[in-house]
Design a protein that fits this description.
The complex is a heterodimer of chains A (about 375) and B (about 300).
Chain A: E1 4-13, E2 16-26, E3 31-35, H1 42-50, E4 57-62, E5 65-66, E6 77-80, H2 92-102, H3 107-121, H4 136-149, E7 154-158, H5 166-183, E8 186-191, H6 194-200, E9 203-208, E10 211-216, H7 218-223, H8 228-233, E11 240-249, E12 252-256, E13 261-263, H9 266-272, E14 279-284, E15 289-291, E16 301-313, E17 318-324, E18 327-333, E19 344-350, E20 355-358
Parallel strand pairs in A: 3-8, 3-9, 6-7, 7-8
Antiparallel strand pairs in A: 1-2, 1-4, 4-5, 9-10, 11-12, 11-14, 12-13, 14-20, 15-19, 16-17, 16-19, 17-18
Helix pairs in contact in A: 2-3, 2-4, 3-4
Chain B: H1 2-49, H2 69-74, H3 88-119, H4 125-137, H5 144-157, H6 166-190, H7 194-203, H8 207-215, H9 220-235, H10 239-244, H11 253-260, H12 269-290
Helix pairs in contact in B: 1-12, 3-6, 3-9, 3-11, 4-6, 6-9, 7-8, 9-12, 11-12
The chains are: A alpha+beta (about 375), B mainly alpha (about 300).
C-alpha cells in the first residue's frame, strides 16, 4: 500500500516525446485510470512506473522512495499485461507461484496465497491446467491472480480487458472494481476505453500527446471538462461542437454559429461577457438536445431548426443524427420521439448544460 | 426426377473417381521417390552381407552366399583375416564423443548468443548479425588450409588443442556451425513475446532466471532440431577430421571407414558397408528417441491465441 508520484517526468524515444512533463499524485488505495487515445503515452508512463522503461527526466516515487534506479523486481509492484503474458510451459498454479518462488517464500505460504487468490477469482479448479487450455477470460483471471499473490504495494494494469469480448469485458470490469474494494491497494489502470475509465476509476487522468490534460473524478471530468480534448474524449456519443462567435445583440449575449444563434441565459451571461466578440467553440452533450415534443420541465430551451439525417433506435433511447447548415450533430432523445429520417424538425438545446471553449486555446471558458 | 438423379449420381461418381485417381497418381509418385532414395541404402545392406568384397561382381540385391563374414571381420572376430590394428569400436566412440561434445557446446553458445541478439539492444548488433550470415556464405572447405595451419600453430602453444586432438577438431566444428544456428535460434526467439520477459522481470526474475526458467523451456523444439542437425553434421564430416587427425586411434568413424576403400588392389567394400551401417545406428537411435520432441506450438497460449 503506497502512493505513487510522477514528478516532472519525461520519456523520449529519439525525437519523439512519449511522456511530456507528467506530474501526477496517486493517493494510497486509489483507483487511478490513465486514459487517452492510442499512442498518447499512457502505456509508456505505466511502463516507466513498472521499471520496464527508464525515464529520460524527472522522478517517479512509490511511497516516499524515488524508484528511478530501482529494478522492476525491487519496486514491489505487480503488473497485468494486455497480452496476459502467462508462462506457457507452466501450469496455472506455477504461473501464480513463480514470483513467490523467486522470492524464496516458504512452500506452505505459497500454497496458501495461491489457493486464496484462486478462490477470489474462481479459478480453483483450473490450477493444474496449462495456459493454452484456458479461454481468454480464464487467462485474464490467471494474469490477475499472478498479480494478487504477490501482495504488492501497487497494481498496474495495462489495457487488461481489450482482448476480451464485449460481454466478458463488462463482467471483468465489475470484478476488477470489486477486487479493488477487497484488496484496498493502489490500482493504476491504463485503457483507451473511456467507459472503462468512467466506470472503475476513483480518479481519471486524461492524457493526449504525452501531456496530462485533466486529472479529476469521473463526474467532474464529465461535467466540467477543462478543454476541448477532454470534452470530446469523455462521454459516448461524444459531445457536439459548433464553431462560432460570441456576439452581443439587443442587450443579450448570443452564440452565433452562422447557421443559428443561441441566447445565453441571463444566469450565465456574467461568465462569458468578457469574451464577447471572440471566436469560440460551443459544446453540448447529446442528452441535452431534446425533441421539442419531449422537453423536460424547468429547462431553458433554445429551439434550432434541423433536418434528421439518420436515426438509431436503441430501445431505451434514440440517437438522432441531425444536420443544421454546415453542422452535423447527435441528439439523444426520448424513445417516444416521432422524428424520422428526412424530416425537417425542431430540437431544443438545454441552455443550462453547455460548454464554451476558446477557439484559439481550446480551453474551457468558465 | 430420375433423370436429375442420374445426372447428379454420375457427377458424384465422377468426382469420386477423380478423387481416387488423384490419390493413385500421388501414391505412384511417392512409391517411385521412396524407391529412388532407398535403393542406395538397400545396396549397402546387400553389400554388407556379400562376402565377395567387390562391388563389380555384385549383380543382384540379394547376394549369393550371404553371410555375416563382413561383420565378423569388422569386429576382428575372423581368425583368417587381419587388417592390422584397426579399431572400429574406437572410431565409433570417437565419433560419438566429438559430435556429442561439439553439439552440446554449440547449443549452449548458440542459445546464449541468440538470446542476446534477440532480447538485448547493443551497438553493432545488426552489423554482427549480418557479419555472421556473411561468413556463413563461404564453405568451410575454402578455409581448409588456413584451418590446418591455424590448428597446427595453436598446437605449438597449447598442445591439447593442436593437430590430432579431438579438442582441436571440436573447436573447428564449433566455429563452423554457429552462424546459421544463431540465425535459426534468433528467429525462433523473436516469435516468443517480450511480454513474457517483462512479466518475469516484474515477477522478480534476473536476466539469467528469465532465460533459464521462462525462455529456455519454450525453446525445446528448436533446440532439438538444431541439436540433431549439428550432431549429424559433425558425425558425418569427413574432410576436416581427415586433415586434422592423423593417428588411427584418434580417427572418427568417417575417416576410419575410408581406409577400407583406400587400398589400390585391396578394397574391402563388404567390410566398409557393414561399418557404414553400424555407424548409422547412433543417428537412427537419436532420431527415434527425439521424434516426439520436435513439436512446435509450445508457445501457444502465452498470449491470446
Amino acid at each position: 500500500m503506497a502512493s505513487v508520484t510522477f514528478r516532472n517526468v519525461y520519456k523520449r524515444f529519439g525525437d519523439v516525446i512519449a511522456v511530456n512533463n507528467l506530474n501526477l499524485e496517486v493517493g494510497d488505495k486509489e483507483f487511478l485510470v490513465l486514459v487517452g487515445p492510442s499512442g498518447c503515452g499512457k502505456t509508456t508512463a505505466l511502463r516507466c512506473l513498472a521499471g520496464l522503461e527508464e525515464v529520460s527526466e524527472g522522478e517517479i516515487l512509490i511511497g516516499d522512495r524515488v524508484v528511478n534506479d530501482v529494478p522492476p523486481k525491487d519496486r514491489d509492484i505487480a503488473m497485468v499485461f494486455q497480452s496476459y503474458a502467462l508462462y506457457p510451459h507452466l501450469s496455472v498454479y506455477d504461473n501464480m507461484a513463480f514470483g513467490l518462488k523467486l522470492r524464496k517464500v516458504p512452500k506452505e505460504e505459497i500454497r496458501r496465497r495461491v489457493n486464496e487468490a484462486a478462490d477470489i477469482l474462481g479459478i480453483r479448479d483450473l490450477l493444474d491446467r496449462k495456459p493454452r487450455q484456458l479461454s481468454g477470460g480464464q487467462r485474464q483471471r490467471v494474469a490477475v491472480g499472478r498479480a494478487i499473490v504477490r501482495e504488492p504495494k501497487v497494481f498496474l494494469f495495462d489495457e487488461p480487458l481489450s482482448n476480451l469480448d464485449a460481454k466478458l469485458r463488462v463482467a471483468m470490469r465489475a470484478e476488477i472494481s470489486k477486487l479493488h474494494q477487497r484488496l484496498q491497494t493502489t490500482f493504476i489502470y491504463v485503457t483507451h476505453d473511456q467507459t472503462e475509465a468512467m466506470t472503475m476509476a476513483t480518479r481519471i487522468a486524461v492524457i493526449n500527446k504525452g501531456i496530462l490534460q485533466q486529472l479529476d473524478t469521473p463526474q467532474n471530468l464529465y461535467d466540467k471538462p477543462n478543454n476541448l480534448f477532454v470534452a470530446g474524449f469523455i462521454g459516448s456519443p461524444a459531445m457536439n461542437f459548433f464553431p462560432g462567435k460570441l456576439r452581443r445583440q439587443d442587450g443579450k449575449l448570443l452564440v452565433d454559429t452562422g447557421d443559428f444563434a443561441l441566447t445565453i441565459p441571463p444566469s450565465h451571461v456574467q461568465t462569458y461577457e468578457a469574451h464577447a466578440g471572440k471566436d469560440i467553440i460551443f459544446g453540448i452533450r447529446p442528452e441535452n438536445v431534446h425533441d421539442v415534443d419531449f422537453i423536460p420541465p424547468n429547462i431553458v430551451a433554445e429551439r434550432v431548426s434541423v433536418k434528421v439525417d439518420v436515426t438509431e433506435l436503441m430501445g431505451n433511447e434514440i440517437f438522432l443524427y441531425l444536420v443544421s447548415g454546415r453542422n452535423t450533430f447527435v441528439a439523444r432523445v426520448d424513445p417516444r420521439s416521432k422524428l424520422r429520417i428526412g424530416q425537417q424538425a425542431q430540437v431544443a438545446f438545454d441552455m443550462d448544460n453547455f460548454h464554451i471553449f476558446d477557439a484559439a486555446t481550446e480551453q474551457a471558458i468558465r | 426426377m430420375s433423370n436429375l438423379a442420374q445426372t447428379f449420381g454420375a457427377l458424384r461418381s465422377s468426382q469420386k473417381f477423380q478423387k481416387r485417381f488423384s490419390v493413385a497418381v500421388r501414391l505412384v509418385i511417392a512409391v517411385f521417390l521412396i524407391a529412388f532414395s532407398i535403393f542406395p541404402v538397400l545396396w549397402i545392406v546387400s553389400a554388407s552381407f556379400d562376402p565377395s568384397q567387390s562391388l563389380a561382381t555384385q549383380t543382384s540385391l540379394i547376394p549369393r552366399n550371404a553371410s555375416l563374414q563382413n561383420y565378423q571381420r569388422l569386429f576382428g572376430k575372423d581368425p583368417n583375416y587381419k587388417f592390422g590394428d584397426l579399431v572400429f569400436q574406437k572410431w565409433i566412440r570417437n565419433s560419438v564423443k566429438v559430435s556429442g561434445i561439439s553439439t552440446i557446446l554449440s547449443l549452449t553458445i548458440t542459445t546464449m548468443a541468440a538470446y542476446a541478439f534477440s532480447r538485448m539492444r547493443f551497438k553493432g548488433r545488426v552489423a554482427m548479425l549480418k557479419g555472421i550470415l556473411l561468413i556463413q556464405v563461404f564453405p568451410n572447405l575454402l578455409a581448409l588450409v588456413a584451418i590446418y595451419v591455424l590448428i597446427f600453430q595453436f598446437g605449438e602453444i597449447i598442445p591439447a588443442l593442436g593437430l590430432n586432438t579431438h579438442a582441436g577438431l571440436i573447436m573447428v566444428y564449433l566455429g563452423g556451425s554457429m552462424g546459421m544456428n544463431i540465425w535459426l535460434m534468433k528467429g525462433f526467439l523473436d516469435t516468443i513475446p517480450r511480454d513474457i520477459d517483462e512479466s518475469g522481470m516484474v515477477d522478480g526474475a534476473s536476466h539469467f532466471q528469465i532465460f533459464w526458467h521462462l525462455i529456455l523451456p519454450l525453446l525445446r523444439p528448436i533446440l532439438v532440431v538444431i541439436g540433431i542437425l549439428s550432431f549429424i553434421g559433425t558425425y558425418g564430416d569427413f574432410i576436416l577430421a581427415r586433415i586434422l587427425l592423423n593417428d588411427v586411434n584418434q580417427y572418427t568413424l568417417m575417416v576410419g571407414l575410408q581406409i577400407f576403400t583406400a587400398g589400390q588392389f585391396d578394397q574391402k567394400w563388404g567390410v566398409f558397408a557393414a561399418g557404414a551401417l553400424i555407424g548409422a545406428l547412433p543417428i537412427m537411435i537419436i532420431y527415434l528417441l527425439l521424434q516426439d520432441q520436435i513439436v512446435g506450438g509450445l508457445t501457444q497460449g502465452a498470449v491470446k491465441g
